[in-house]
Structures
1.
Amino acid sequence: AQSVTQPDIHITVSEGASLELRCNYSYGATPYLFWYVQSPGQGLQLLLKYFSGDTLVQGIKGFEAEFKRSQSSFNLRKPSVHWSDAAEYFCAVGGNNNNDMRFGAGTRLTVKP
Amino acid sequence: DTGVSQDPRHKITKRGQNVTFRCDPISEHNRLYWYRQTLGQGPEFLTYFQNEAQLEKSRLLSDRFSAERPKGSFSTLEIQRTEQGDSAMYLCASSLVGVPNEKLFFGSGTQLSVL
């Protein structure tokens, strides 16, 4: 069965510093991988997704993620964090039907001034 | 595109009462999903519809839970005889099947507190 592990429950970074959020997945076939962001009182917003092709995926708000099949990972990165990036980040894995989608427990990002 | 809207935003109820939530998807979207999210966890899939047909229900969805999408537009999720363990954020999402790289759009959720 598919599953997602986000090892870091909470991360704090300084504004302007680089960011990497970890995601490891388990999936029996070629996975579709997603990163979502959730701000307080807001719905989940899709940052980026990987379906096939180039393993380095660019998303919105300056985020990128790299799919590494050998490590079953799909880590999210941003070179320079802004205070507005403080939120909860969820990694998800699924097949070609969104009903298969499984979310990780999330990583809460705090940004220090 | 007015987005996915959910009503109410917050619901407080006493144990044993019935509650109903509503979701209005993006108008042209034919798929509608319900998820439940508890504190410190990611969303868990509950059920989904394609048009008015309910195609899948999670084992998480006990007999006390029922969802409908009678005209293939808005959906309701009803919980009967609520229990404290039902306290969670209930999220609705919609998508358009058949579009390459089908994308889920989420609503802001209904926060349920069962006292």
2.
Amino acid sequence: KNEVEQSPQNLTAQEGEFITINCSYSVGISALHWLQQHPGGGIVSLFMLSSGKKKHGRLIATINIQEKHSSLHITASHPRDSAVYICAVTFSWGKLQFGAGTQVVVTP
Amino acid sequence: DAGVTQSPTHLIKTRGQQVTLRCSPKSGHDTVSWYQQALGQGPQFIFQYYEEEERQRGNFPDRFSGHQFPNYSSELNVNALLLGDSALYLCASSLLGAGGNTEAFFGQGTRLTVV
């Protein structure tokens, strides 16, 4: 059983819609990461969170440590946001454990 | 700053062969972690190198080995390749600060195909 669960697995939205991706984890962590992966494989780090909320442009990430849950929101989605979004947690010494990813497709 | 660089970008090998993948970490980073990502799945942790030693290891057989050099660059070696080793191999670098809580930067990956 993966200790990091993401939902949904796949998501299709129309341009302009608000998108939410959820991530739950089962044990205590030191940090949670939201990552973006485009076709071809390269991964870009979007956020690293240990508490509260962070915002970067149209992206917002929140984390609730007590509930062991995090969300990634994309406001005013755009086709260029189409990618796989991955939640990963750091347990110790920087080792990351990844969720399976959410495939997001934004149509014009 | 070139960020994390991996080489080669693509590789095709035959079953039973050996392969070496390379990673140069982001400038200033001292820790390199390797991950295997099979198609349609999230990355799986292989191992982590810090101070030229393997510090942590995931659930991978001994066929997977690595090395870290004094300049912090790293190699991943896989012996006796199996078809199931076909995957995207990702390298991530970080700075092992207090508590090990540091942002990771990823390379573009090496796509290994075993035929």
